Amino acid sequence: MPDTARAAAGPTPERRYGNRPTMKDVAARAGVGLKTVSRVVNGEAGVSPDTERRVQESITALGFRRNDSARILRKGRTASIGLVLEDLADPFYAPLSRAVEEVARAHGALLINGSSAEDPAREQELVLALCARRVDGLVIVPASGDHRYLEPEIAAGVATVFVDRPPGHIEADQVLADSFAGARDGVAHLIAHGHRRIGFIGDRPGIHTAHERQRGYLAAMEAAQLPVHDGWVAAGTTDPERVRADAERMLSGPDGVTAFFAGNNRVTVTLVRVLAELDRPVALVGFDDFELADLLVPPVTVVAQDPAQLGRTAAGLLFRRLEGANDPPRRMTHPTRLIARGSGELPPAT
Amino acid sequence: MPDTARAAAGPTPERRYGNRPTMKDVAARAGVGLKTVSRVVNGEAGVSPDTERRVQESITALGFRRNDSARILRKGRTASIGLVLEDLADPFYAPLSRAVEEVARAHGALLINGSSAEDPAREQELVLALCARRVDGLVIVPASGDHRYLEPEIAAGVATVFVDRPPGHIEADQVLADSFAGARDGVAHLIAHGHRRIGFIGDRPGIHTAHERQRGYLAAMEAAQLPVHDGWVAAGTTDPERVRADAERMLSGPDGVTAFFAGNNRVTVTLVRVLAELDRPVALVGFDDFELADLLVPPVTVVAQDPAQLGRTAAGLLFRRLEGANDPPRRMTHPTRLIARGSGELPPAT
């Protein structure tokens, strides 16, 4: 975190990661007993105004926040972590969520999820709502490109790990798949099977993974000294109508593409439908594996990432922080794997 | 709710559904001003012990709970509802979650999800954790068969709607698909296409929908006066190994089944794999539609429910309650729809 950003986050925290400050920390700093802190926090009588002010100053300095859930439950608080996804309906996130949940459970913690629906404002609202609801840590698939709003929370001890996409303008643990190399290798695979006119249909260009995969496509084309026509690269929502329109446009005319590289599983599934309607074979390699890809005709060649592994790694990093690890933020990149099944090995239609 | 259960839930609430009691309600009942209630709730000075006791009694009687998230955020509280699912990795729940989220958003509320992983203890832990985190209402796909643990929460004003499966031992709004009729019609469809030896592979029998669908299978067989051999009905986890073993057992021998009815989409997907490996056609009808079913060979005939509609209806009922509707709990049952695509119209192999 740059110093200016840290300054903007409010009072300098005495610890960045690790356990949140406890009442004991507040008591030590204020030079009072635990019972006194408890009285102040719970608004009970019997504390002098001077002492109360000292305790309040200590609370502010440490970023201490009372554990309200515990009081409501009147028993030990249930540890919980939050997971903020991009889209509940994208099957890519199902194994990722489940893996995070399994790690959380192994640590005796509950997992609470929410979806940003790819809306930065919604992401922020949801993240802060989860913090206000006292999650101990967060795993975030970011929709936003600026996470400085999280600095006060991180400073107050909310461990935070980003997965699938990096954070914006803050330093934090992050777990990514190698989107660039994966896409580059997938496109090189199509080129190796004789394709020269290859279309790329990706997700919205503001999304990190979409951008990286497009870069990978361009790198593979350049490495093979192949020209890329303007009409061969399309980025936008994964809405089936949009993908279909771009695909049909790229297929049309005498110089239509003979192969597609799809930027994610939502795009791939629509392309499978579009290509099934054609009277000529068109090759397809998709980023992301998906259920039943191997049973389609032809079976679909994919660049697979392992969303469960991404989730497990991210959750593992999170609990490492929650258990007190204090080393600088890490960036872990998982390789992808090309699975050749048939659709990516079709030769160019003559 | 039976009277005994209500008694066990603590002080009789003055309202069952509708908005939670507010500070204003507490003030009115205690015969004090709003500022006094605020002082008591926030532990501020300036309230006599007598008045404080009266306010506390009013708080207890009304089941009022302070909005702690609001204080933490230091701005208006974000309304939120919780959704407790059975399995994050089952694609059936993706459109259901998304529909609930869209309704929540239209009402200015956040959606927070959790998964019970089909574990009743986990469900209870998660539901109570969400209540402690001050959700305004809950949509629950229950794993548990006994929801009396929710009575104090419902009494305190947490609106609750069950979806996909009914609640156990409490009365509450519920939104179901017609599992019995759907399965009965799907099996009748196979019988109409000449099948006499039909296997049923379902989810665990303790699950309401699994039980209802098995009942539907048996009803269709009985209506056609067809015998059901012991080995033709298998219930258990949706683990692919289990489903595969049951399917292979039912297919073996001279009297092997010529068709399957699959109890849900997880079972169907495994059966598609098993049947793709056979050298003879075996008919298949599956409960639940699933992505790409129409592009498989043969395309898969399904009894479709509309999970988005289930979610929308459940969320609609929830916000109706949150807006004050006070009528008796409703049970809404949505019909299913048979979509004939090919696999369910195959004749029996000779």
UniProtKB/TrEMBL annotation, chains A, B:
InterPro entries in the cross-refs: HTH_LacI (IPR000843), LacI/GalR-like_sensor (IPR046335), Lambda_DNA-bd_dom_sf (IPR010982), Peripla_BP_I (IPR028082)
Pfam families: LacI, Peripla_BP_3
Entry keyword set: DNA-binding, Transcription, Transcription regulation
Residue intervals of the HTH lacI-type domain: 21-75
Top-level taxon of the source organism: Bacteria
Organism: Streptomyces daqingensis
Keyword Membrane: no
Lineage: Bacteria, Bacillati, Actinomycetota, Actinomycetes, Kitasatosporales
UniProt-recorded name of the protein: LacI family transcriptional regulator
SMART domains the record matches: HTH_LACI
Chain segments carrying region Disordered: 1-20
